[in-house]
Design brief:
Helix content is 36%, strand content 21%. By secondary structure, it is α/β, with parallel strands linked by helices. The strands form 8 sheets. The protein has a 5-stranded mixed sheet with strand order 16-17-15-2-24. A 5-stranded parallel sheet has the order 26-30-25-31-32. Strands 4-5-3-14 form a 4-stranded mixed sheet, covered by helices on one side. The structure holds 2'-deoxycytidine-5'-monophosphate (DC).
Length: 660
């Protein structure tokens, strides 16, 4: 899990493209956990989100006596308690997780135990009175331990009446209705919930009903005004449940694609999604973004003319993703209006006030009302540089303001760790699909064992630049393919591996899904396979954006084939290193022996000659000096001598390009 500092400086950035695999949806994860806990039978939940809010739910269920295990290979197993928690007394701390607090309140209020529920101070400012009133109407015994109408709560055994009707307000939080819907099957009789006032955030109710149906409870409904739980409803485990990707989390990346050229593809949600927030794609389309939506992915790119249009939208159905639109509005061609968003006031923070304050820091003119916000970008969308965004312990504020960095400015995100509520690796993923096309790049290439790796690393170190060893990416694809026994001629599967490589570069080590593979990718079998997979356009294309995303200030040294010609054609300096085959075989031999691998000089020389021939002759990204590259024959030179020459060239190239 990512460890974040007190603040994070992002940008300046101007491009976004690539593929993001979304974490599981918070709304679906916590609902599924509770339904599985209350159901009859064992449920295997796949792709459950790993985040703070879900941890609060897991802890609470554990304290209530629910048997949970995993995750094992991405699966959490829940032994259902058939509607009766075994622990009759518990003190539950639920942080700031509304998706845990409200439904657990309802489920426990209708049980016969003695419980206390509390959260962080902000949770104690978020209203729950309407839900408590509804539950009291059914015989629940609930006391406020602090302020009337707010958590913390104490719950004692209910004296269940026989009411066939219960009323709940729908215009404060749709979670009150969700909580009742999920808890009422416990009552065992037919009960109708009447919604008082206009129901907000309707798509979230659809998520609830959809998941309840998977657990065997078919709620009868009259539009959005009344919902009936049939008599003798029982929740029964469907066995396996797959959690969709988080559609709210998708909104940041889709907006990034619309702002920063794109395309950005999010995988894990799509046309078949049960989450209302996929509707965000429609809002982006209304801004002129180009949207492509398939069953399990959505892609967004900037309008062809690059101009995002201002919008005036009722965003009641997608309150969370709407925050992303408020920041996207900074890039629009006029004043945008976000309407019907009163629920923002009672979320993780007063989001209307917070968004207004922070948007102003970027130079926007903002008008704020009880249930709306208008955003007028600064002239030419030239955002204020160096704004420090406060995040109010609100994950969505931290995430949506990262987009401002795409305005070519530096943005400081204070307390970035708050994203752990729903998307712990958000900034890592954001970093991987965004870059700055004006940051200087030094592209270094040359045949295998020409010394390009050592030289490029040294140059990067001396300049304090980032370093991209593109060969390692091809090696990683090869390693995965070998391990997964993928046919090395299967272009589609190899392309898929390239696009989804779960790799992290950290402190000079290469981690593949947490496993350190820095040495494993250097084995000769992997080298040979890497050279083969590198000849597939699907693989090269799959790795393209990932490589470009290494382009961050103050600069990048990128090493490998086609860095100068395809990936960074606008590199400030392009260098091609050579050395005789014999010299390179000697270097490789030394390297391998030092690492404890077996090798002989003659076979290595043979290998190198064969690989040279294959790499030079192949039609895709052949090994050759690219146009404009400067050549250095390193045969008789030390690494320091080569590095010194490159630094000198870079210095004079920088002088010739003063605008950078
Ligand atoms: O530089 P290296 O030996 O680590 O590269 C491994 C393989 O990947 C090698 O066959 C060349 C290929 N490669 C490529 O095709 N394009 C790149 N940008 C980098 C490496």
């Amino acid at each position: 899990m990512a460890v974040y500092p007190d603040y994070l400086d992002l940008g300046p950035l101007d491009r976004a493209a690539g593929v993001v695999r979304l974490p599981g949806s918070k709304s679906i994860s916590n609902r599924t956990l509770l339904l599985a806990a209350l159901a009859v039978g064992r449920t295997r939940i796949h792709d459950l989100l790993a985040s703070d809010d879900v941890d609060r739910m897991l802890e609470a269920l554990g304290l209530l006596g629910v048997k949970l295990s995993g995750p094992q290979q991405g699966v959490v197993t829940v032994e259902g308690c058939a509607g009766r928690f075994t622990q009759r007394r518990a003190d539950l701390f639920l942080g700031n997780a509304g998706t845990a607090f409200r439904p657990l309140t309802a489920a426990l209020a209708l049980s016969d135990g003695h419980y206390k529920l509390s959260g962080v101070p902000r949770m104690h400012e978020r209203p729950i009175g309407d839900l408590v009133d509804a539950l009291r109407g059914l015989g629940a015994n609930i006391h406020y331990l602090g302020n009337e109408g707010y958590p913390p709560l104490e719950i004692r055994p209910a004296t269940m009446g026989s009411n066939a009707k219960v009323q709940v307000r729908g215009d404060v939080s749709s979670q009150f209705l969700t909580a009742l819907l999920m808890a009422l099957p416990l009552a065992g009789r037919r009960i109708t919930i009447e919604v008082v006032g206009e129901l907000i955030s309707k798509p979230y109710i659809d998520i609830t009903l959809n998941l309840m149906a998977r657990f065997g409870v078919k709620v009868e409904r009259d539009g959005w005004s009344s919902f009936t739980i049939p008599a003798n409803s029982r929740m029964v485990s469907p066995g396996d449940v797959f959690v969709e990707g988080d559609a709210s989390g998708a909104s940041y990346f889709l907006a990034a694609g619309a702002i920063g050229c794109g395309p950005v593809r999010v995988e894990g949600v799509g046309r078949g999604s049960i989450q209302g927030d996929v509707g965000f794609a429609g809002a982006l389309a209304a801004m002129g973004a180009r949207i492509d939506m398939h069953d399990n992915w959505i892609e967004a790119a900037a309008p062809l003319d690059g101009r995002l249009r201002a919008f005036d939208l009722d965003l009641n159905a997608i309150p969370d993703a709407a925050m992303t639109l408020a920041v996207a509005a900074l890039f629009a061609d006029g004043t945008s209006r976000l309407r019907n968003i009163a629920s923002w006031r009672v979320k993780e923070t007063d989001r209307i006030a917070a968004m207004a304050t922070e948007l102003r820091k970027l130079g926007a003119r903002v008008e704020e009302g009880t249930d709306f916000l208008t955003v007028t970008p600064p002239a030419g969308s030239r955002l204020a540089d160096g704004a420090a965004i406060d995040t109010y312990d609100d994950h969505r504020i931290a995430m949506c303001f990262s987009l401002a960095a795409l305005g070519g400015v530096t943005v400081r995100i204070n307390d970035p760790k708050c994203v752990a509520k729903t998307f712990p690796d958000y900034f890592g993923q954001f970093d991987e699909v965004t870059w700055n096309s004006t940051v200087p790049v030094i592209a270094i290439d040359g045949p295998s064992a020409s010394g390009k790796g050592a030289v490029a690393q040294r140059v990067a170190e001396q300049l304090g630049f980032h370093y991209l060893d593109s060969g390692s990416l091809y090696r990683l694809v090869a390693l995965c393919a070998l391990r997964e026994r993928v046919d090395l001629k299967d272009a589609d599967s190899l392309g898929g591996i390239a696009r989804q490589l779960p790799v992290h570069f950290t402190g000079g080590r290469i981690l593949l899904s947490q496993e350190d593979v820095t040495d494993a990718i250097r084995a000769e079998a992997v080298s040979t396979a890497a050279s083969e997979v590198a000849s597939f356009p699907s693989v090269r294309q799959g790795l393209m954006r990932r490589q470009q995303a290494f382009r961050h200030a103050p600069g990048l040294v990128a090493e490998g084939r086609d860095m100068a010609s395809v990936v960074f054609p606008d590199a400030l300096l392009k260098v091609f290193l050579t050395a005789s085959a014999e010299e390179r075989a000697r270097r490789r031999y030394k390297q391998l022996i030092e690492k404890g691998f077996d090798a002989t000089l003659t076979t290595l020389l043979q290998d190198i000659r064969q690989r040279d021939a294959r790499d030079t002759e192949r039609s895709v990204a052949p090994l050759q000096k690219s146009v404009g590259a400067q050549i250095i024959d390193t045969t008789g030179l030390s690494i320091q001598e080569v590095v010194a020459r490159i630094l000198q060239w870079f210095e004079s190239a920088s002088h010739k390009a003063p605008s950078r």
